[in-house]
Amino acid sequence: MLPDPLQDHPVAAALDAHLPDAITGGHSEHGEPTLFVTPSRIVEACRFLKLEQDFIRLSAVTCVDWHPADPRFEVVYLLHSLSKNARLRLKCWVSEADPEIDSVTGVWRSANWYEREVFDLFGIRFRNHPDLRRILMPVDWEGHPLRKDYPVHGYKYSYPEE
Amino acid sequence: MRETISHTDTITAEAAEQTVAQPVAQPGSNRRMTLNMGPQHPSTHGVLRVVLELDGETILTAVPDIGFLHTGIEKECEVKTWQQVVTLTDRVDYLANLSNNLVYALAVEKLIGDIEIPPKAQWMRVMLAEFSRLNSHLVWLGTHALDIGAMTVFFYCFREREDIVRIFEMFSGQRMMTSYIRIGGLALEPPRGWQQVVGKFINAFPSKVDEYEELLDANPIWKRRTQGVGMAPLEDLLDLGVTGPMIRAAGVAWDARKSEPYSSYDKFDFDICTRTENDVFARYRVRLGEMRQSARIIKQALEGMPEGAWQADAPKIVLPEREKMKTQMEALIYHFKIVTEGFRVPAGEAYQTVESPRGEIGYYVVSNGTSKPYRVYMRTPSFGNLQALPALLEGRLLADSIAALGSMDFVLGDTDR
């Protein structure tokens, strides 16, 4: 279902025609088109956008924690097309109970480190990721620091009265 | 390997000949060696560790290990007010502070919506962002040449770099962590007489670039060590998320200053520098060309600098002048509110990109309507570029790895945040 602000957007319309059940909503705040995609269709959607719509670059993958909402995590994909000079944002909601989503490393190799970063800092697991290890935090670190319920000072060095 | 080392002190010409005559090791044989490059290797320009698997001098696999400089900047942004975060953006990339200030300010201004940045502030931002590009490229050229063995260039580059950090100090009071570009304009009024200082520097600068070029282009060692080294197919580079001068040295004329102009870059006349060779030498030529273009932009900014305000007319966001604060009640109230609580930014999200010296910086800023950012994601160019390191190193010689690594021009603080 294509949302009203994106009815005329050619890329969104093409994606909707190709995968009718993939898009669940979207908006175009500040002139930046954003599509909400069903998590199970994210790889297909990305592959279509890369191969058919020329979004050859994946700028980044990141995540926003909307604790205590459910589903809690919003995984954000920032796409960029050089030939169209256009950017597109895809979003998938991932629940806290089962924080898993398919990896898009098969579509863009650059997703590798970005997904590792999201895994490291938010604890979201990417299925079929070739090398899902921590990247920024030490390998033996416990917890995922960018989650909203993780204290800014950390657990290890917190003072008792804090 | 241990055996070889124990014999090195008594090596003779005969023994050396024998070493050469040894058969090339077969994959899987015990002559494979794992080498830790870093995290304190001087040529990694920070704390990067690369685990190299070697067969003799050939690199079989290279696995970068990052995170040694992770300081949790993104987490810390969430407990600072919107304006305080500017000081954190400085610390992401110590060579392009103003580009980071700029991208954050632009992203938040996009979220605020009804704020108009006066032309003088916009032009000033462009000029300072170009100075920070010069600063970064000069440090890169000096240290990269030093890595490869051309020592003299370092002193020449740092001579000009010193002038630039003095200019930063003149504007902001700080040589490196300037925090000069703020939400709503600039931090301080440009100092009196800045035109003379900038003018003197920028008139002399193009001849200095010629000097570097002369030093390096006529140097056969430099050429042999950079030409045909550190290459990877363009498709791989794009797929691995490489941006900036590296991708322009592979022939892609993509520059965010042209394709998505921000902060009145569309009013300036400059060219995108590209090369097609895609090797270390091409990256050096592209950066050299960018220095010339930056000098052109700064010159235009100097000559056409608009008059007028250097801060937006937005009393709820921009701190009032000291004099007004002492004499007007409203100004005092706004000052108190901004300093104690900070201003609120409407709920929403924005992604803003800026062409930094290293490539695409993108800040994805999410607000939930409070006086602190809900999430600040920093898409840093060094992180994106470093991911392509194995593509540049694998299958090549160990001795070339330093040249290839240096040509990527990453800053580890920028990678790890």
How many helices of chain B? 19
Major beta sheet, strand line-up of chain B: 1-2-3
| Shape verdict of chain B | globular
Strand content of chain B: 5-15%
Task: Give a quick account of the main beta sheet of chain A: strands, pairing sense, barrel closure.
Answer: 5 strands, mixed
CATH architecture of the largest domain in chain B: Orthogonal Bundle
Structural domain count of chain B: 2
Q: Which SSEs are present, and which pair or pack?
A:
The complex is a heterodimer of chains A (162) and B (417).
Chain A: H1 10-18, E1 23-27, E2 34-37, H2 42-51, E3 57-65, E4 73-81, E5 86-94, E6 100-102, H3 111-122, E7 125-127
Parallel strand pairs in A: 2-5, 6-7
Antiparallel strand pairs in A: 1-2, 3-4, 4-5
Chain B: H1 2-7, H2 13-21, E1 32-37, E2 49-55, E3 58-65, H3 73-77, H4 85-90, H5 97-112, H6 119-148, H7 152-172, E4 181-182, E5 185-186, H8 194-217, H9 220-226, H10 234-239, H11 245-248, H12 256-259, H13 280-304, H14 322-327, H15 329-340, E6 348-356, E7 359-367, E8 375-379, H16 381-386, H17 389-393, H18 398-407, H19 412-416
Antiparallel strand pairs in B: 1-2, 2-3, 4-5, 6-7, 7-8
Commentary on this structure:
The complex is a heterodimer of chains A (162) and B (417). Chain A is an alpha/beta fold and 162 residues long. Chain A has helices at residues 10-18, 42-51, 111-122, and strands at 23-27, 34-37, 57-65, 73-81, 86-94, 100-102, 125-127. Chain A starts with 9 loop residues before the first helix and ends in a 35-residue tail after the last strand. A 5-stranded mixed β-sheet of chain A has the order 1-2-5-4-3. In chain A, strands 6-7 form a two-stranded parallel sheet. Chain A has one domain: 2-Layer Sandwich (Beta Polymerase, domain 2). Chain A is globular, with a radius of gyration of 17 Å. Chain A contains 3 helices and 7 strands. In chain A, a hairpin with a 4-residue loop joins strand 4 and strand 5 (86-94). Chain B has 417 residues and is mainly alpha-helical. Chain B folds into 2 domains: 2-65, no CATH class; 73-113 and 116-313 and 346-416, Cytochrome-c3 Hydrogenase, chain B (Orthogonal Bundle). The chains are: A alpha/beta (162), B mainly alpha (417). Chain A binds chain B through residues 29-30, 32, 34, 56-60, 62, 64-65, 76, 78, 82, 85, 87, 89, 108-110, 112-113, 121, 134-138, 145-146, 150, 152, and chain B through 66-67, 70, 72, 74-76, 78-79, 110-111, 113, 236, 238-241, 252, 254, 259-260, 348-351, 353, 360, 362, 364, 366, 374-375, 377, 379, 383-384, 387, 416-417.
